[in-house]
Amino acid sequence: MIIENIEKEFKDKVSSKVQLMLEGKNRYRVFTPFMFDDGDHLAIVLKKNGTEWYLSDEGHTLMHLTYEIDEKSLGHGTRQKVITNALSTYAVSDRDGELFTKIENGEYGNALFSYIQALMKLTDITFLTRERVKSTFREDFVSLMSETIPENRRTFDWFDHDHDPTGNYIVDCKMNGMAKPLFVFALNSDDRTRDATITIHSFEKWGLSFQSLAVFENQENVNRKVLARFSDICGKQFSNLDANKPRIKSFLQEIIT
Question: Which portions of the chain are predicted below pLDDT 50?
Answer without folding.
Answer: 129-130
